[in-house]
Amino acid sequence: MSLIVHKYGGTSMGSVERIQNVAKRVAKWMRAGHQVVVVPSAMSGETNRLLGLAKELSANPNPRELDQIASTGEQVSSGLLAIALQDQGVDAVSYTGWQVTVHTDSAFTKARIMGIDDAKIMKDLNAGRAVVITGFQGVDPEGNITTLGRGGSDTSAVAVAAALKADECLIYTDVDGVYTTDPRVCEDARRLEKITFEEMLELASLGSKVLQIRSVEFAGKYKVKTRVLSSLTDPLIPLEQEMKSGTLITFEEDSTMEAAVISGIAFARDEAKITVIDAYQILGPIADANIDVDMIIQNQSVDAKTDFTFTVPRAEYQKALDLLKKSVQSHIGAKDILGDAKVSKVSVVGVGMRSHVGVASKMFRTLSEEGINILMISTSEIKISVVIDEKYMELAVRALHKAFELDQK
Amino acid sequence: MSLIVHKYGGTSMGSVERIQNVAKRVAKWMRAGHQVVVVPSAMSGETNRLLGLAKELSANPNPRELDQIASTGEQVSSGLLAIALQDQGVDAVSYTGWQVTVHTDSAFTKARIMGIDDAKIMKDLNAGRAVVITGFQGVDPEGNITTLGRGGSDTSAVAVAAALKADECLIYTDVDGVYTTDPRVCEDARRLEKITFEEMLELASLGSKVLQIRSVEFAGKYKVKTRVLSSLTDPLIPLEQEMKSGTLITFEEDSTMEAAVISGIAFARDEAKITVIDAYQILGPIADANIDVDMIIQNQSVDAKTDFTFTVPRAEYQKALDLLKKSVQSHIGAKDILGDAKVSKVSVVGVGMRSHVGVASKMFRTLSEEGINILMISTSEIKISVVIDEKYMELAVRALHKAFELDQK
Predict the structure, then answer these.
(1) What is the spatial order of strands in the sheet that A226-230 belongs to?
(2) How far A10 CA sits from the closest chain B CA (Å)?
(3) In terms of CA atoms, which chain A residue is nearest residue B61?
């Protein structure tokens, strides 16, 4: 008997029929003698519908109230899944984040999990129940509902798996694993059977939407064996087959791993960049406003002025620009703040990069040959990211996928 | 400065525009210096949508999970209203039942409020905030979400008003007060400026949908000054005008009250009746299953057998019949249980009845003249109810409304 955490995304929970399929799949695992905790997302489209209502009411809706509203999507899908499981003859119960309890900090709309109580869950599991826990949410020390940000249900699932010391965390989604890049952008994209934790972390942080980055951090920190696999297969396929499908996130580079230099190409379309000339300590107000600052570059120009450039998600561009103007304009003047709201980031990722020189030059040459101008460059041990004009993004992904031979196994 | 509780029904919260109107109305009260607690229902149609999903998944969905699901409708509308209030420049915060805390028993889908903590609410009110509290729900001693049954937001509002010792509880709805009967059934129906608590209690228990009966019980028990008024007027009409509109529920019959014998006619279309012959203690299993038993009549027939007849809401007819057959069939045989799923109840209500004889005979004569057969009769001090074939219901309401001259002031 193993303790398994299942996570199902919004598409997998998107209709009554799909919820029934999830229930059939979970029932299969239960019948095989496993203990199962299920973490569902909201039904697809529901979170957007709810936030859309809030945005019709206010251009800048209060984040506490947004969480109060958005958290209901998972509460509904969890209750529905419990009912569907009972209809399959499986004893089941659903809990919200505050009922479990999932403790978080108070950063509304992007809270962090501080801890998860396991007593209630273990009691139900030991009584033979499937336990359904709302993804995406928790409760802060003052009793306010919080949400973890987009894709937060992945983090909920991995955090629950860590808290329960689960044997495996299965992330069921509408793709059948982690690909070398997004198949919608590059048709040669290929599924990976394994990927290292570090590569997955880079891919997630670089815009791959397969897993939320915090879920990968949790998986790494607590060594949670995590597998990304498809929820769209027949729910009654043999367990042995299902347990080998998808992509496993591994913690050691073993000899059986594909000896590729580059494992994947990630991209984030909706970026924006801001440059502030000759200013220090400007990130304070940005961080206080909980805006995700991504790439940061600092450069001293010939006239000894310091250019400080960083990127933010495009949705937060205007807010960041307004904050900067308010807090630093008095010192440096508005003309010294430059912005570009239409940039994208493309990254190549691979642990093989450590022992291979020439990845960067190959990347830059490939882009140059396509006539793509590089606006910013950022590197780490196992990835290289470039910021380019948004309109070249697809072209860049396809060219790099071919240049690094990711279409060939 | 007064402390006022506002309650808004689903229609009043049915769209972004209507929520904005509610916010404008509440803001008007706040600007006039009042402290306001608002209890909204779910947006119209939402509770049905959520329960519909559950019923697609199971013919007999688990009531705990139904409450987990259905309670989200009010959570969403409360968060949206808080945002709309903030957009009106009013500091506001929304709370769910468990956040307040609204304590209930564990009778899922029809829980009863046991108590409401006022500390959090008073703290916010004293800080100048409008406090939005989800109607319809609470939390049981084990931390499960509960709901109060259809129309439960009325009860939430009055219970909150009682807990806070509010000066008045305003029930905003899509009608402009309590009428002598439903205007959709009888076009001569007329709005009452005042109605006694006892009459309102009878009307509510007899099927008038203006207020949930438990809310009237709460209003009576804690002497909460309650007014039913329209949410569809211009939200910015003068406060003095609004405070005199609708129908006030009074606690004393005063000399200024309309000296009518009958104040109103109520009806409940979807009733069903069950007759058990010669059986005792049959209501035990029905009560255990939390089925609302309404009218009860017992009669000894000439052959010394005892007919025991009672009515239940039509939706619970089959369940009640099944329970009875299971629990008493062994003693008395199935042929001794008779049922009729298509009956309706029509009632005349009025405190004036106490001092007037002849109301019953006038009622029975009126129905007889219309050729309507009376199946059951039940009387109390201030009402007379009859059960009749469903197809005669509208005819009966109109005939009685005319016979008791309710169309004339």
Answers:
(1) A92-95, A130-133, A35-40, A3-8, A168-173, A226-230, A247-250, A194-196
(2) 16
(3) A83
How far apart are alpha carbons B218 and B183 in whole angstroms?
27
* Strand extents, DSSP E, A30-153: 35-40, 92-95, 102-104, 113-116, 130-133, 137-139, 145-147
Q: Sheet containing A137-139: which strands, arranged edge to edge?
A: A113-116, A102-104, A137-139, A145-147
Q: What is the ipTM of this complex?
A: 0.76
Question: Which residues from B are below 8 Å from A71, CB to CB?
Answer: 75
Paired tokens of A354: 């450590």
State the distance between the two ends of chain A, measured CA to CA, in whole angstroms.
36
* pLDDT value for A248: 94
* Angle (CA) B145 B147 B150, round 5°: 165
Residue with tokens 């014998």: B261
Domains, chain A, ordered by start? 3-175+210-250 (3.40.1160.10), 264-403 (3.30.2130.10)
Question: How do strand A296-300 and strand A226-230 relate by DSSP bridges?
Answer: unpaired
**A80 in contact with chain B, both atoms CB, cutoff 8 A:** yes
Give the model's pLDDT for residue A255.
Answer: 46
Q: How far apart are CA A370 and CA B107, in angstroms?
A: 68
- Full-model pTM: 0.78
Residue A293 near residue A283, CB atoms below 8 Å: yes
Residues 6+ apart with CB under 8 A from B274: B309, B310, B311, B312, B317, B320, B321, B324, B337, B338, B339, B340
**Residue A258 confidence (pLDDT) above 60:** no
Q: How far is residue B19's CA from residue B17's CA, in Å, rounded to a whole number? A: 5
| Per-residue pLDDT at A286 | 77
3-class state of residue A167 by DSSP: coil
- Interface contact A303, partner B, CB < 8 A: no
* Cβ neighbour number for residue B70 with a 10 Å cutoff: 27
Give the pLDDT band (50/70/90) at residue B253.
low
The model's pLDDT over A7-33, given as tens digits with 9 standing for 90+, comes to: 999 999 999 999 999 999 999 999 999
Q: Does B69 touch chain A (CB under 8 A)?
A: yes
Size of interface A-B (CB pairs under 8 A): 104
- List beta partners, residue A146: A138
The answer, for A65 touching chain B at a CB cutoff of 8 Å, is: yes
Question: What average pLDDT score do residues A173-191 get?
Answer: 86
Tokens of B162: 């009682």
Q: Which of A25, A320, A72 is nearest to B49 (CA)?
A: A72
The residue behind tokens 């020439």 is: A358
- The confidence score (pLDDT) of residue A305 equals 61
Joined tokens for residue B135: 């109607």
One-letter amino acid for residue A52 of the chain:
G
pLDDT digits (tens, 9 = 90+) for B195-237: 888 888 888 776 677 788 888 888 988 999 999 999 999 999 9
What pLDDT does residue A99 have?
Answer: 98
- pLDDT at residue B263, rounded to an integer: 79
The number of residues in chain B equals: 409
Burial A97-120 (b: 16+ CB within 10 A, else e): bbbbbbbbeebbbbbbbeebeeeb
Query: Counting beta carbons within 10 angstroms of the beta carbon of residue B373, is it exposed (0 to 12), middle (13 to 18) or buried (19 or more)?
Result: exposed
Among candidates B57, B79, B80 on the partner chain, residue whose Cβ is nearest the Cβ of A20 = B57
- At what angle are helices A393-403 and A359-369 packed, to 10 degrees? 130
Question: Which conformational region is residue B91 in: left (phi greater than 0), alpha (psi within -120 to 50 degrees), or beta?
Answer: beta
Highest mean pLDDT among A237-251, A294-308, B72-86, B182-196: B72-86
- How many angstroms separate the CA atoms of B11 and B3, rounded? 25
What burial class does residue A308 get, using C-beta atoms within 10 Å of its C-beta: 0-12 exposed, 13-18 middle, 19+ buried? middle
Looking at CA atoms only, how far is residue B319 from chain A in angstroms?
Answer: 19
